[in-house]
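## Example pair
The file below holds two records. Each record gives the amino-acid sequence first, followed by its structure token line.
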Amino acid sequence: MENLSSVFDLVQILESMVQTRVLCVGDVMLDKFVYGKIDRISPEAPIPVLQFERESQMLGGAGNVLRNLTALRAQGTLLSVVGQDESAARIKELGSELKSAHLDLVADAARPTTLKTRYISGNQQMLRVDDESKSVLNDIMVEQLCQRAKNLVAKSQAVILSDYGKGTLHSKLISEIIAAAKQTHVPVLVDPKGVDYSRYRGATILCPNLKELAQGSNHPVDTEENIIAAAKLLIQQVDLQALLVTRSKDGMSLIARDGSVLHLPAQAREVFDVSGAGDTSIATLAAAIATGASLPDAAHLANTAAGIVVGKLGTAVVMPSEIDEALMAHQGRVRSKLFDLPSLLDRVKIWRHQGYKIGFTNGCFDLIHPGHVSLLRQARNSCDRLIVAMNTDNSVKRLKGPSRPVQNQDSRSTVMSSMDNVDAVILFDEDTPMNLLQAIKPDVLVKGADYTIDKVVGADLVQSYGGKIVLAKLEEGHSTTSTVKKIAAV
């Protein structure tokens, strides 16, 4: 097996995923989360009573693979079966919200759309209710899926079969997809289900976890040697090019048809939730292969993405910027503190789960001086994690005039990221950070004492949900404007 490329080549592959065309065929479902508080036992039976607070919905199953593809900026298409019900309508709505995504849904009035409802108190899932049908599709429905699939395969650069055992991936549909893909030299990646993997015969890559590898091969997987033996057995039996097995805390192992083996150690630093990690992995693998990347490089990116997503809460996706960061960090480079908004909101979610108080301050921070250092120290002392929002260059010019900023936004964000008291940096192009405040909802908003609370942008918002406003004491005799004037006078 060829050697892994450099981190810079891997980043190039990551950037090349934009607009790659990946088809996902499989079982879409609607994931519903009902959140509440439990503080008593029912008088009717010895069961807890969940006091409803809120609920959320998202695409699940093969729909989560689609979410991951679009997060990677690939053009994802999902072919699946739904019922004619409210859950199907909601799946269509959620799909329409995804950029560069297309849903091709076949409606079957005889079956419900798969709906999984999870009841959660605090961070503990108390109960899951599944409304679904696992019955075999009728011949008319299978034929309709086959015709649509063959047309879509011809337009794709990679195909994912996301099998959750809910009936969409009929054996005839699988075989026709693989046959059509071979004619156009399109790789087929399979996230398998069940124990009979002969139905995936001729696919390019099979991506089981350890349990699925044991079931599909009927071979022990208790040692590394046994894992390799089980993989080689399946490769021969099912006529695969390779098998990528996920091994939880032990990372992944890529075993190729020529007998070569590549072990990739786990990349996760903290594990909060493993749900959906397989969807993230196979989506990243497929998008990378669609760029023409080698299988080892694609597996490395998939392993990196999986290590990131298990550090998030719930069924989540991974952004290219996060994979880029992780690749750089693995090479010993300092982890960047500069975030885009989706990545920052993910990080804030984790911080809140850890019980941390989130602080927020903002400014141009053109030339860092002792006054800024004092402000950041006071801000960090008022919270557990501090976010600094910085005006972009265009925003600074509107506020300060055409001669500012002295340093561009890349330089300013690099300097700010080096500050020990700062945990995250984000740029905003508006004149005020109001949109960021509405999205992040910090627990503490910090500004200098030259402001009064009624003049602080976002103070009303932060106070409306119980947040605190802190006016930091200013260091006399320090300002960027005066520094610029001194420089100009020299």
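Second record, same layout:
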Amino acid sequence: MTGTGAFAPDDASRPIGVFDSGVGGLSILRALRAELPQEDFVYIADSGHAPYGERDTAHVVTRSRAITHHLRKQYSVKALVVACNTATAAAIDLLRHENPGLPMVGVEPALKPAAAITRTKRIGVIATRSTLSSARFDALLRSVEREAEFVCQPCDGLAEAIEISIHQQDAIELIAMCARYTVAMGQFGSQTGQMDALVLGCTHYPFVEEHLRDLVGPDVALLSTGGPVARQTRRLLQSHAKLKASGLGHFRLGTTGQRELLGTAALNWLAWRGDVEALAVPS
């Protein structure tokens, strides 16, 4: 795949828009590319206005609307993936209301899949404070609260630390932060009273999965949302007759922050080399 390329104007060949507050949504883009290799994508990291997870709801809604408008106006996207738990929780209902003709997929912590596989009936959830305090997460939690006990841990600063670590070889501070939050939750394992599943409730967190695995042990299932989001995107495109039939897709990466940050993350996590576009997306 290449980082640039002319997108065909017909409906099925138009690109899919994907956005996050930073580089974390690359975990969703990675899953989308695996599920839909024929599709074209435009990914925007709103790093100049991040982190969403530590901003108020009004800020997240304003930026989500601005990015959605930019993707529609500049790239004529045929569908939108909100690859950010915080933006999904705060803004996706409004975005759907304001863009009724645009198929849209959000992300949410994998509580239901975790409830389906747990044996100890205790599940850990790590996410940003904004996600955990949102009405959308509260409704999701209430829908499964009879199936298991959920131990929810806000991880202040973790998403930002993951982004910072992209340019740093020393991961000691990042590992220490992961350890602090997992220890605060209690015991993980397969025994009665222990948590045998950990839900990664932020799209950044799959990029520290190796550290989390070392901390919680081999018997604990780690659940993220990339795969389910990609499969739902396929189903939605099929239902709207917008699924591209064949070919090898292109994708573009753009950011409102540092181009080098997104480029390095894409190289590390997607094995991608290309030019990152510098974007100005006013609110």
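Notes on the second record: Residues 57-75 form the longest helix (19 residues). The radius of gyration is 18 Å.
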